[in-house]
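This section describes the prediction task in plain terms. A model, or a person checking by hand, is given the sequence of a single protein chain and must write out its three-dimensional structure as a string of tokens. No templates, partner chains or ligands are provided. The sample shown here is typical of the held-out split.
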Amino acid sequence: MRYSTFSGFDHLGSGSLHQAYVASRRIEGALIFDRETGRVVDIDPRFPPSDDDGPRPGRPKLGVVPREVTLLPKHWDWLATQPGGASVALRKLVEEASRNPKAQMRQRRDAAYRFATALVGNAPGYEEAIRALYAGQKDEFAAHIEAWPADVRAELETLTEEAFDS
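The expected answer:
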């Protein structure tokens, strides 16, 4: 279940992008959220997601995108000595950093922040809840969202399961 659909404060469904789209397509103003990022997913109704958007046989598209990276000469010199060259070394460094538990915790907090901002950014206790979220204060966060609509609160609890230290 990577996506959740909301209409106002009401949870319409969760699942694949196709399932979330089906749950929302006839409801004006419904929002689909990517649960990994907390961002709203914009779907062009002319090209709706299909149920068969899974892996296809054959070589996968890797999604390699060339971009510019600015480094000091000494960094380029170090990268040039790495097995596989600069691109391989940079990919390995990024992969290693993205697996860091602190980075993952930050990503979970950012996703919860984006979701909360989109739906309840004007709710009582919003600012206090966000401060508690980023301060790692699980009990304080829970106390501040207690009065929020049940579906929103439940989604935030799910999004923040791994956002606080154990």
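For orientation: The chain has seven helices and four strands.
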